[in-house]
Amino acid sequence: MSFLKTMLVIAFIIIYVTLSHVALAVHDAHRIWRQIAMLMLLVPMSSIACWGAVTLLKQLGVNKLLRLSCGIAMAFSLAYAVLIFWPVLLARLDLIYLTEHIATNSMLCWFFAHTLFAGRTPIITTLARTIHAEMPDNVERYTRNVTVAWALFFAVQIALSLLIFIFGSIEVWSLFANVLNWPLVILMFAVEYACRKRVNRDFPHATIKESIDAYFNNSRKA
Question: What is the pTM of this model?
């Protein structure tokens, strides 16, 4: 990723986090900030839903024209539903953000956890093998433990999110779920990297960027 693209991504994240936090802190359901925040949530969520439906139809062998027609019909149906329930959605913006936060962390937790089942290769082990074809047993054990750690990290995120939402204020919850979300993920990366350097001192270490690039390159070949 080029420097310009990286800066644009960072700028988008900062804008998204700021608007989300401001929108949840504003209690007037019709303020412009809440409406913008609602659109920022619903547009990508609706797009993912339409894409998922079209992908499922493709797997079922449905022809391209019918898939496209169903995707368009679903998009218009969702837009109509949003238009009808817009006042209700604005009033319960907090619940929508909670749903999005729980769903995202649940998917990420499952992404790591399901590779730990019997007969499967932990995702971090797979990622490490794209760079190091041969790894000592202790390194393989470490990569499995890292996979467990990431699964637990997202599971803890879910638990804390629910607890703060139920027992705390929406401002505190937004601080945790929106403002601190990315810093916590970055901190997790940093802690894992420090542990990796300490536990496997004599093993050559790839950077986070090299690991991610190697993983996606391997996925394309597969």
Answer: 0.80
pLDDT of residue 18: 84
Same domain, 196 and 131: yes
Pairwise CA distance, residues 159 & 90, whole Å: 25
| Same structural domain, 153 and 205 | yes
Identify the domain boundary among 45, 68, 91: 91
Same structural domain for residues 150 and 62? no
Query: Which residue segment(s) compose the domain that 53 sits in?
Result: 1-91
Q: What is the 3-state secondary structure (H, E, C) of 99-141?
A: HHHHHHHHHHHHHHHHHHCCCCCCHHHHHHHCCCCCCCHHHHH
Q: Each residue of 10-34: pLDDT tens digit? A: 888 888 888 888 888 877 766 788 8
**Cα separation of 130 and 217, whole Å?**
9
Residues 184-209: tens digit of each pLDDT = 998 998 898 888 888 877 776 666 66
Q: Based on the domain organization, do 87 and 108 belong to the same domain? A: no
